[in-house]
Structures are given as structure tokens and as C-alpha cells.
Write a structure and sequence with these properties.
Strand order of the largest sheet: 1-2-3-6-5-4
Largest sheet: 6 strands, antiparallel, barrel
Strand content: 25-35%
Family: Belongs to the peptidase S1 family. CLIP subfamily.
Protein name: Phenoloxidase-activating factor 2-like isoform X3
Radius of gyration: 17 Å
Pfam family, one: Trypsin
Organism: Drosophila kikkawai (Fruit fly)
Number of strands: 14
Order of helices and strands: EEEHEEEEEHEEEEEEH
Helix content: under 10%
Structural class: mainly beta
Number of helices: 3
Distance between the termini: 15 Å
Keywords: Disulfide bond
Amino acid sequence: MTDPDSSINPSRETLFGANPWVVGIYSKDTGKYIAAGTLIRYDALLTSAQALADIPQDQLLVEAGNWDRLSEVESLPHLNRSVRSIDVNENLVALVHLDTPFYPTLPHIVPACLPRKSDAAYTEKSCQTVGWGQPKINGSASDRMWFKKYSVMSREDCDYYLGEDPNLGYGKFCATDADNMFSPRNIGGGLFCAENETVIAGIALSSGGWEPENEAVLFASVPHYLDWILDKLSPYNGAELQVEII
């Protein structure tokens, strides 16, 4: 994961291939963008269950390797896959199984690592989220993948911003823009934290436009659901498709 400096990159634009685990989920019927997702192996991804709730799985299309959604500027191809099945937990987390794995030889399509279960507490860690939908700059007709640095919030701070939630801390946590500027809400998108390796720590549960005021964003905690994720992946395990855990 690159760690670009937003002070010298005010557009917060990522580099092509810097986040190879990020995918877009679209409607086959309309081509409409539905949500972001994160590959955790070449045949499976995590996203928000709520974002997919009203759409038949045979109408979902997963696109990997894209960087600019509105133009063909990438040096390597986008690849599409259909959905074989979806597992859902508590109507928060969706584990999407693809009908065909992505090719494991392409540098711009690579799964993210899952965290250890012991990594459940990310409070005060600086992470980042990436996605699409940033407001156009100077009338640009592009929609390139952006990044935002996020800081994970304490339970007390999250309660202050979002109201008390008895289930908070049991599968959910809050994070906010580390630069205290905007709240890009990218439903289904991952929150990525880097120490020795980059891991997917959370899945965004809310969506909307770029807000002019910094607000807390709610995430599903991936460590909390790790046992369930591994259990649901096990029927599909193959020697060349083992999930990568650091």
C-alpha cells in the first residue's frame, strides 16, 4: 500500500495498481455502480451486505483492475466476473464467491491480507480507505480511485458522534478523516491498516457523497468476523487459492 502525502497530492488520487485488491460491483442490467469490495483471495471478496440486499446475485458483476471508471487509461485490462454465491452475516458483512477466479499472475489484481483475530482493537491507528466518487476537479471527466487517511476512533468518541449503540464494539467500529476535512462514504469499501503488511481491518457500512464536514463513518470489524469468513471459505479451498493471512 502506498502512503501518499495529501499535502502534496490535494486531489488524493491514487496510483494505478497501488490498491490491487479493490473491486467495483455493478448491475449487469443497467451497468450502474453499486458498491466497492475487497478481494481476500482470487475467488472471493468482502463487501457490505446491505448494499447487495435487494439485487439478485445473478445480476451482479464484479470488476477488478479498474482505476479510472470513466475512461480507458490503464496499461493493463479490467476483468469481470459473475457471482456464484453470497454468504451474509448479521446483514452487515457479505462474503461474495466468484464463479471464476481472477488470474493470479496479474500485478494489478491481488488479494488483500486478512488480519489476525487478535488485531480486533485498532483504536487510534491511522489507516486509509480508497474508492471512487470523488467530486470532479476542474470539470474533469474522470473518476479515478481516491484515498483518504482515516483514524480509528475510541468507543466513547464514536458514541458521541453517532449515538450510543449497544452492539458497537461487537462487530463494528468508527473511523474518521485524519485530515479533519471530508467524509467520503464508500459503502462496501475496505479500511486498510498497514504495519508489516496491509490488512483489511473494516468494511464501510454507510454511503453518500463527499461531505463538507468531517463525520464518523461506521465499519464492520473484519477481525470480529474472521472465524466466520474462514469457515465460509473452507468449502472452496484449493491449493492455488488459499486465503492469505499474515
